[in-house]
Amino acid sequence: MNRLELKQVVKQYADKTAVNGVTLNVKEGEIYGLLGANGAGKTTTMRMVLGLIHPDGGNILYNGKPYNTELQQIMGYLPEERGLYPKVKVSEQINYLARLRGMKAKDADESLKYWLKRFEVPEYYDKKIEELSKGNQQKMGFIAAVVHRPQILILDEAFSGLDPVNVELLKSTVKELRDEGTAILFSTHRMEHVEELCRQITILHRSNTVVQGEIKEIKSRYPREQVYLSTIGQVEGLEQLEGVKHVDHNERGYLIHVSQAEVAQEILKTAMSQTTVEHFEIKEPTLNQIFIREVGESNE
Ligand SMILES: Nc1ncnc2c1ncn2[C@@H]1O[C@H](COP(=O)(O)OP(=O)(O)OP(=O)(O)O)[C@@H](O)[C@H]1O
User: How far apart are CA 57 and CA 9, in angstroms?
Assistant: First the structure.
């Protein structure tokens, strides 16, 4: 079921088109990646979904229906810039936000305590936001976005400022919310997180959609131009093979950049004629490589 549908959504600022006809669907239980270089139109798109600004064209549907103010109760938002007040206590602030989104005071407080415990920081209940480190403020922002168990969750650079342990903690939480049915619109510049979490993506480039679909299917559209080889002994002569562009070598193996995937067989033959091959793989492009290829020059 489509929780969120954008159909040809347009936003214009004076003579600047910030979003030019974005179409995408986020289903129940899905994490959808919204990607693009700086200024591509991601924040504008998220703000339209949240009803903070209105589209100049196209439609946004929530559970099949157009926007109304009650939808604030089924949406959660973690903005890239911290959205919480520095001088207000965590409990006051998050409980207030949860009540605004339709929760009873008691349920809100229980939910906040659950999340603080879940993130192993129950003592933050009485702390002011400004007393917390940047990463812990980010965690509080995350709790504020999910405390009311939204059906549609919008995450903008959700893991920024977090150490690796906390990134894993939040990542597993995001996966859990997905498994419980939350539709998640996930925007980030960190392609490795997108690879791990999202099935479908849209890449925006200067306000337009340039790549869209399932990551697996998108990757199959691009040539495979890297071969990974790990061997017991040294391999000589890889650079001289026709179609090999260059070879990166470290103690674990060789990453061979090729002009077409067919060269791979020659690489394997060459290696096997000289030593024992431990691992051989024709690598598909990473999302990062695809992103740079499509959007490379677009930073404003
Ligand atoms: N309030 C505004 N008034 C005028 N132009 C705006 C406004 N907000 C955004 N823009 C322009 O719209 C375009 C898209 O901006 P947007 O903030 O949506 O990009 P983004 O993809 O979120 O970028 P980033 O990755 O840097 O956050 C940019 O050219 C930006 O300058």
Answer: 5
3-class SS of residue 177? helix
Beta carbons of 124 and 112 less than 8 angstroms apart: no
Q: Which parts of 146-241 are beta strand (E)?
A: 152-156, 183-187, 200-205, 208-214, 226-231
CA–centroid distance, residue 245 to ligand 1 (Å)? 39
Nearest residue (CA) to ligand 1, atom 28: 39
Are the C-beta atoms of residues 153 and 3 closer than 8 Å to each other? no
Residue that the structure tokens 């990542």 belong to? 171
pLDDT tens digits, residue range 86-130? Answer: 999 999 999 999 999 999 999 999 999 999 999 999 999 999 999
Q: Could you report the predicted ipTM of this complex, rounded to two decimals?
A: 0.95
For ligand 1, mutation pick of 11, 35, 44, 208 (most atoms within 8 Å of CB): 44
Pocket of ligand 1 (CB under 6 A): 13, 16, 18, 36, 38-44
Return the domain boundaries, the chain.
2-219, 223-283
pLDDT at 152 over 50: yes
| Alpha carbons 277 and 254: distance in angstroms, whole number | 11
Pairing of strands 208-214, 226-231: unpaired
Return d(Cα 109, Cα 92) in angstroms, integer. 9
pLDDT band at 300 (very low <50, low <70, confident <90, very high): very low
> For ligand 1, atom 8, which residue shows the shortest CA distance?
44
CATH of the domain spanning 223-283: 3.30.70
Architecture of the structural domain at 2-219 = 3-Layer(aba) Sandwich (3.40)
